[in-house]
Amino acid sequence: MTLTKSLVRLALATACLLLIPLVAMQFTKEVVWTLSDFVIMGALLFGAGLTYVLVSKLSTNGSYRLGVGVAVAAGLLLVWGNLAVGFIGSEDNPANLLYGAVLAVAGVGALVARFRPLGMARAMFAAALTQFAVPLVAALIWKPEVDLGMLYVLALNTIFAGIWVASGWLLRRAGRSALA
Description:
The chain is mainly α. The protein contains six helices and no strands. It has two domains: 57 residues; 120 residues. Helix content is 78%, strand content 0%. Helix 1 packs antiparallel against helix 2 and helix 3 packs antiparallel against helix 6.
């Protein structure tokens, strides 16, 4: 498929996904999005899709493409969750800004690896470690109460770290099959 067709499909998919909250707003008062919410979410969805389209075209290996997809999905969910409700406390808690380090590690690592699968796998494993370290660093800096909220944060970060590990495993598998 050509890049133009991919971009048109991506734009249509983004528009269709944005119709969900728009329609929901017509039927319930619990969904309240502003124009900026639609713009930000549209940019996130289109940007994530564009990243996947461009990077996945670098290889025909199924494990590579799936690994890239999992990494892009993890990044999208990380940003969306932090913007919507925040992982540590509310979305206004400055500790949530530390999650930018996870995206930086994954993105810079992929660039340094020049999008080769084994190097990207190492970057995703590093992103998993960074993901797990964020609440620990936040706890050292802001010294929150240790309660069920902290357990929730640790559990959520463990799940996200697992997603980054899954991406790394798929990319490592793609790299090893290329060597064979």
